[in-house]
Amino acid sequence: MITATPNRYALLADIGGTNTRVALSEHGRLLPESIRRYANAGQPALEPILAAYMQTEGVSDLAGACVAAAGPVRDGTAHMTNLSWVIESAAIARVTGAETVAVLNDLQAQGHALGHLAPDAVATVLPGQPARPGSAQLVIGVGTGFNAAPVHEAPGGRIVTASECGHITLPTVTDEDIRLMRFVEAAHGFAAVEDVLSGRGLERVFAFAAAEAGQPHSRTAAEVMAEITARSPLGLETARIFVRHLGAVVGDLALIHLPFGGIHLCGGVARAFTPLLAEFGLAAAMQAKGRFSDFLAAFPLRVIEDDYAALVGCAAHLHALAPRI
Question: Which helix (H) or strand (E) element contains residue 140?
Answer without folding.
Answer: strand 137-142
